[in-house]
Amino acid sequence: MSDPSSRLRSGPGPLALPVILLAQLVIPMSIAGTAVALPAISDELGAVPWQLQGVVNGFNLVFALMTLFWGALADRVGHDRTFRAGIAIALLGALGSLLAPSLLLLDAARVVAGIGAAAVLTGASAILSGGWSGAARARAFALFGTANGLGLALGPSVSGALVELLGWRGVFGAQALMLVLALLGSGKVPRVRAERPTADGRRPPILDLSLLARPGFTAMLLVPVAGAVGFVTLLTYLPNALGAVRGLPAGAAGAMMLLATAPVVLSPLGVGALLARTRLRSTAVLLASFACLVLGALGLLLLAPGAPLALVIAPMVLIGLGFGLPLGLVDAEALAQVPESSSGSAAGLLNFVRIGAEAVAVAAYSAVLAALISGQLPSDAARADRVAAGHPGAPSVYAAALHQVLVGIAVIVVATAIAFAVLRTRAARTGGATADGATTGGPTSEPTPAAGER
Length: 454
Description:
Elements: H1 4-7, H2 16-33, H3 38-45, H4 49-77, H5 79-99, H6 103-131, H7 134-166, H8 169-185, H9 215-246, H10 250-256, H11 258-277, H12 282-299, H13 313-324, H14 330-335, H15 343-376, H16 381-388, H17 395-430
Helix pairs in contact: 2-6, 2-7, 2-8, 4-5, 4-6, 4-15, 5-6, 5-8, 6-7, 7-8, 7-10, 7-11, 9-10, 9-12, 9-13, 9-15, 9-17, 11-13, 12-13, 12-17, 15-16, 15-17
């Protein structure tokens, strides 16, 4: 990546960072909160399974894929222009979602919103890198990460409350309002010009897959994959499970999700303090996160008709810890495994894996759950569709399907943890650095700067 100061056309004003954070906040809320509205959407627009799943999956899958397109385009047209275009497109998608008269048109609107969200993310991260420097840049990225964590954490709760107060259209209306405010303030963001090609006319590759040859870097890519499988899927659809199995309304189910989301917000601060004040190593924290995801998924098998809801409190906290414990470590640890000259490509690959894993995991979860429910109700497709959408009426059917999915989640996370441990051990043998300052031995290709200096 070029020197950010050479790309900056105008410095950031006091409103620049709030505008960026406001636009970015809509993305994790869209990922984590939209599914809460599915039962209400199905009541009004129908419960055709693939169309209903498209409300969530249309946004997530297109969002993941379009980050590659916008990344390449932004290098040519400028990151500030990409950011503003993203807000406008995402706003169009939110308004289309708000006014959609059918499931198919709602799906189309969510696809448009995903296209815009990818541009917002691509432009925002580049603007932060090029518009701020030194300690100010570190603080800006810290707030950026906090906004993402809060959006994921509060998405189900806020969306559940909006459904209760305003109906399902209120969820998309709130997103549209936030995007309107961000669009009005988008002129305040710094202007960061596009990267120039190298002397031979070539540009850096969109995805540098050669980085996967570094076992330490590849190991860190597996951490967000496990988080996507073991947490983001449940964050998205567990509110529906609470409604289908225990009859909780959207607002109550969303509020209960705070048990899982509070650790996401609080864990990074606690981990940072422990690493700074004790001999605890980041590897132990990362392995503990895998264990929490597995134990949480298995503990949620206690969610069953007639069983006390108190039984799922600990499992919900555990899945939150599993996602939250490594939240402040992954990026710094991953970038510590590559040369400084490759940090931009490494960050792009990490974000693509993170976003893509979440999109694929959520889509697979909903598809498998719906198939398992349909398999139990083969002669009543309409009823199966309503149950899969999260409506009460067949709690035992939904619980049986959910339990099979939870076992599958636990198996996948265990396999991912084993692969992580193998790669981490291999990296230690060949030599590498970790973000907490520990060097695993052996030469590195370039000195690794402190995480806050990137």
